[in-house]
Specification:
This protein is an alpha+beta fold. It has 3 helices and 10 strands; from the N terminus they run ααββββββββββα. It has helices spanning 18-49, 67-96, 236-253; strands at 105-112, 115-120, 156-159, 161-165, 169-176, 181-185, 190-194, 200-205, 210-216, 229-234. The chain has a 5-stranded mixed β-sheet. Strands 4-10-9-6-7 form a 5-stranded mixed β-sheet. Strand 1 and strand 2 form a beta hairpin. It is elongated and about 90 Å long. The chain starts with 17 loop residues before the first helix and ends with a helix.
């Protein structure tokens, strides 16, 4: 099947699983094109075949063929194939086959009106405790207990900046502080609603370095248009350097 993803206006895919989604999207568009041409041709045929000059007297019996029945059955069969052969297996893989947390980079993404907060566990690999009573919009947007939890001392928080290494699985736990948002990484083919009170994990693995968009794909208020961030995909060495620089900043300047 001819790959038409580049004709659909899709952003470049830089993930290990994106090609499967793009292929399925292409199949859906081929089906829609077939239906458009087929039903359009059939419509023109009926206009010509049953024009008034050839049918001056109305027939209340109608056409007696089974073509439309077979055509509708073929469409249903094509949709069943798309659903059970492509969509459900891909969905099951992405939702059930998570990489081991010990081998992946684990990050928390917390949406709020109108920004994305990213929480990294730091050098000890453990996330510090978060307490809603400690939330400060300017100084501590996630309410991390830096004073009371020793695991929080080296935690790293960024706003609208997500940094990950290439070639390593990344697990992102998505949630929200206020309303429903939608965590969107178009180039990674990732999109997950951020729902208050729910922690919903998604995962991906990048295949190339670069700087890409982070968006909110759910209308979340008047400032929705400016809820935009950047995903930076580093080489493993550059990511380790970035992480070391953030830890050094904490040690030197504190919170």
């Amino acid at each position: 099947m001819l790959d038409i993803s580049h004709l659909l206006g899709l952003p470049p895919d830089v993930s290990t699983h994106g090609h499967e989604l793009d292929y399925m999207t292409g199949l859906v568009h081929w089906l829609m094109l077939l239906l458009f041409v087929g039903w359009g041709a059939f419509f023109l045929y009926t206009l010509f075949r049953f024009r008034q000059s050839k049918n001056p007297k109305a027939s209340y019996e109608g056409a007696r063929g089974h073509f439309s029945t077979y055509a509708e059955g073929g469409v249903v069969l094509a949709e069943v194939v798309l659903l059970f052969i492509f969509a459900i297996p891909t969905w099951a893989f992405l939702k059930n086959e998570f990489p081991p947390a010990g081998e992946a980079l684990v990050v928390h993404a917390v949406g709020e009106q109108f920004a994305w907060n990213f929480h990294y566990p730091g050098a000890d690999g453990q996330f510090g405790r978060r307490d809603v009573n400690l939330v400060d919009a300017a100084l501590n947007p996630l309410g991390i207990d830096f004073a009371g939890d020793p695991h929080a001392a080296d935690d790293i928080v960024t706003v609208n900046e997500l940094h990950v290494p290439v070639g390593r699985p990344v697990i992102v736990h998505v949630t929200s502080k206020d309303v429903i948002h939608s965590f969107s990484l178009p180039n990674l083919r990732v999109k997950q609603d951020a729902i208050p009170g729910l922690d919903i994990p998604v995962w991906f693995e990048a295949t190339q370095t670069g700087r890409f968009d982070i968006g909110c794909a759910q209308l979340c208020g008047l400032g929705h248009y400016r809820m935009h961030g950047w995903l930076t995909i580093h080489t493993p060495e550059a990511y380790e350097q970035w992480m070391a620089e953030r830890i050094a900043e904490i040690e030197e300047y504190g919170r």
